[in-house]
Amino acid sequence: MDIPKIYNPKDVEPKWAAWWEEEHLFRTEPNPAKTPFTIMMPPPNVTGVLHMGHALQDTVQDTLIRYHRMRGFEAHWQAGTDHAGIATQTVVERELAERKKPGRVELGREKFLEEVWKVVERNKKVIAEQKRSLGDSPDWSRERFTFDEGLSRAVREVFVRLYEEGLIYRGPYIVNWSPALQSAISDEEVDHREIEGSLWYVRYPGVDGGPGVVVATTRPETMLGDTAVMVHPEDERYRDLVGGEVELPLTGRRIPVIADEYVDREFGTGAVKVTPAHDPNDFEIGKRHDLPMPVILDEHARVKPPAPEAYVGLDRFEAREAVLRDLEKLGLIEKVEKHVHAVGYCQRSKVPIEPYLSTQWFLRMKPLAEPALEAVRDGRIRFVPRRWEKVYFQWVENIRDWCISRQLWWGHRIPAWYCDECGGVTVAREDPPACARCGSEKIRQDEDVLDTWFSSWLWPFSTLGWPEKTPELEYYHPTDVLVSGYDIIFFWIARMIIADLRFTGEVPFRTVYITGMIRDKYGRWMSKSLGNGIDPLEMIDQYGADAVRYSLIVLNTEGQDIRLDPSRFEMGRNFANKLWNSFRLLAGPAEEVLAAQLRKAVEIEEKVGPSPDPVAAMLDWKGSAEPHPGRTALRLLERAGERALEDRWIRSRFLLTAREVGRRFEQYRLSDALLAIYRFTWNEFCDWYLEAIKPRIAPGADEVQAGATLRFALEMMEGIVRLLHPFMPFITEELYHRLGEIEGRIVEESRPDSVALAEYPTGRGEKVDRRALEEFGYLQELVGAVRNVRGELLVPPSAEATLAIREDEPRTELIRREWKTVKRLAHL
Ligand SMILES: [Zn+2]
User: Would you say residue 707 has pLDDT above 70?
Assistant: First the structure.
């Protein structure tokens, strides 16, 4: 066997990724004979490439999936992508502009959507390739897309049902309007930033020529849409004004002075302006007091009528300048104060959002939320780490109506048709030919599409064929664990729980595993503008996917954020190299010694011939058509060799490690599981065990002993390879194959072709040799003590030292028995 001196992931990883694919190793089918273990992959946006956050979450999921697959579960990892409404539409528009192609509006809806589909198909392939290079093992044949036919049917079904139940309604509402995207965006898509602005004190004169009232505002331009001034009902200062009117400067309008307990008397002058169409709180007050709600900004946030002619067409920031200038002229600005306050910014386009009154579709969430709270309260769903449950409760308990319409083209179009004749609305599962109310054919479909999350919230059951009662839905659902970052607990996790309970009556998943988020080494978010992002594909190219996976798992502890620096991937690479070198150390002599033994064993068998003794009987290898020549004789040879202390010790350490790994998996402490394997492999197997057996396998050593030792050591090596496979799938697949190819190392006929399908070591069903642990532990201490003394006294490693043992030392017998090992390791 040709074993390269240096382990090069590039020679290994693509080969096995392709082989897994060709062999369809990760296909899954509903199989009543096995227990399912299912994970829904959070569908990445089709907009582009994977980032480190994906790499972390994918590694966690893949590790769980591979572990359960090896443990005998029908492990299904549901892959797919999200059509990502706003994000994708923005990307395609930008691409068209860069390529100097006609833009969205020029192309028209149909042609533009064709362009989007092209980009989507291209990106889906790229994303799947990237995931393959990381070693992901989902069932690609079951890949889904939030905008494919089946999922679109589920979306439509859900919309119609909720509409029929009266939970979906259309109405005027203050939404977060992004003038850049020209669409409503959800509360969660708004970043609130503290900015240093001003507080203007503006006088609204009395109608009788009196002093009127001074209001304080951070947004003077919105006064053009004011419909009241409001004070606290118990505020003595304004008692006489309530019920009267004041002049609204610049507009020639008069507005009422109203009283409402909402007002904070301490803020400003205790009197505030009310702009119901451009402020969410004012909107509520407007409804309470039945105020008019004039909209004075258009979708680009430019002033429009009924605002006075003089300002129409001005951008909102220009309008502010103009309004302030004119108020100044009239002497109505009493004072200006510096004022720090929060302003909402559109996460995607980075412009300040504009609270804006528009007609949108809404989903009433309150009536849906209670079962979702119950499911977490009673433990049917648990969060790991538990602290995230608090965040979840807080959001779900205060849940608000969800604005589900978006002014976009890319997405599930709202299945509502408006009738030009009678004004009726028809909402239907199939596109209707006529108005449901009057039968007129003059109907138009709503132009808007649904929020992307309106399809992603169905992901755990729509991907399995709902609303049909498919065998997949029956078998894989509810799923086992969802792996996600805490940034989308509201957007996605809570909504999935709500939807699933509503439409399947079951929880979508039993465990929510929240990973930390990736930051740079200074703790900052990775972002394009900071240029501090680390590209997982570059890291895979440089260090190998196994190394990237290793480091991500080790660093992901207890859901803490991860401070990542490319140098952290060296840990993973070093470990892969260590593993490779230990394999080389064993495989070299094994090929010679074991092959020679095999030849000898065949000879022995030929001599023993067909005699009816036990050896001959065992030669008829059970369960195999062809008896393996030499197999039985080899077994007997092996049994003849007595197990040395270090063999019994390493075997027991292995069993204990496997048990610990199993426990850690149950606790979702993957970092601890991997570190247990790492410590066993590096500190115990490589540093102690391989050192201890060196003389037994060196040239000139007893051949029977050497053969038995090598066979046993390779057995241990295969144990490590299996334990490690879920974490580092590529190098372990490579070593597993090489371990199976060593001539003379007889492996079971039932040994699967791929380590991915091999049995995972649990360390159960075999006894731990406590005495071996204790005795070898003592030798380790002894050798360690000698090494320390040598270090302190500066005795060079090349110099032999002498060990004197006191007569009353109770371990004298053990030291004598293991003298060869002690002498060598401590260099005595
Ligand atoms: Zn009609």
Answer: yes
Q: How far is the CA of 440 from the centre of ligand 1 (A)?
A: 5
Q: Pick 84 or 599 by higher pLDDT.
A: 84
Distance in Å, CA 173 to ligand 1 centroid: 25
Distance CA 753, CA 322 (A): 77
* b/e code 457-482 from CB counts within 10 Å (16+ = b): bbbbbbbbbbbeebebbebbbbbbbb
User: Between 85-98 and 109-134, two packed helices, what is the crossing angle to 10 degrees?
Assistant: 100
**Local structure of 84: helix, strand or coil:** coil
Domain 183-355 fold: Isoleucyl-tRNA Synthetase; domain 2 (3.90.740)
Say how many Å lie between the CA of residue 438 and the centre of ligand 1: 4
User: What tokens does 738 get?
Assistant: 């090489």
DSSP tag of 297? B
Question: Which CATH superfamily is 568-768 part of?
Answer: Isoleucyl-tRNA Synthetase; Domain 1 (1.10.730.10)
Give the Å distance between the CA of 169 and the centre of ligand 1: 18
State the DSSP string of 249-279.
TTTTEEEEEEE-TT--TTSTTSEEEE-TTS-
252 Cα: distance to centroid of ligand 1 (angstroms): 41
Rounded distance between C-alpha atoms, residue 727 and residue 729, angstroms: 6
Mean pLDDT value of segment 14-26: 95
Instruction: Determine the distance separating the centroid of ligand 1 and the alpha carbon of 433, expressed in angstroms.
Output: 11
Residue range 253-257: mean pLDDT, rounded = 95
Q: Where are the domains of the chain?
A: 183-355, 416-447, 568-768, 771-828
CB 385 within 8 A of CB 669: no
* Mean pLDDT value of segment 360-364: 93
Q: Which residues are CB-contacts of 480 (< 8 A; sequence separation ≥ 6)? A: 36, 37, 38, 39, 509, 510, 511
| Placement of tokens 């049909």 in the chain | 468
240: left (phi over 0), alpha (psi -120 to 50) or beta: alpha
Rounded mean pLDDT of 542-550?
96
